[in-house]
Task: structure prediction
Amino acid sequence: MTQMNIIEAALEARTRAYAKYSNFKVGAAVATRSGKIYQGCNVENASYSLTLCAERTALFTAIAAGERHFTQLVVATENGASPCGACRQVIWELCGDIPITIVDINGKTSETRSSELLPAAFDERELGI
Ligand code: THU
Result:
């Protein structure tokens, strides 16, 4: 799987966003150690707080398919926006410290990682697990 495949997967997922209230479309794609890519988009709701972000849609879809090991996450937005705080927490929980690529609709990318987006994360260690 090439870097371009997963970036294209995130951009493609963005086109399927259900974003009728914000019109802010987001796509995500997560690569697994087993070599698969899972896509997600944001799914909004008239009861706004029920909205699910693209990153969590992709990760929960992958988890539900039985995946447990992730190697890279790509997030696609119009303007190259970063993942929200809730998604940062979920990314840390399910992926640990992985590389994250952020891409805008012109294909401009920036690289970060989950430890940079969520320093001093709360996780299972605080629970003694
Ligand atoms: N959104 C995401 O999908 N991911 C993020 O990390 C930031 C926000 C979505 C939620 C909502 O549908 C829209 O973007 C505007 O907040």
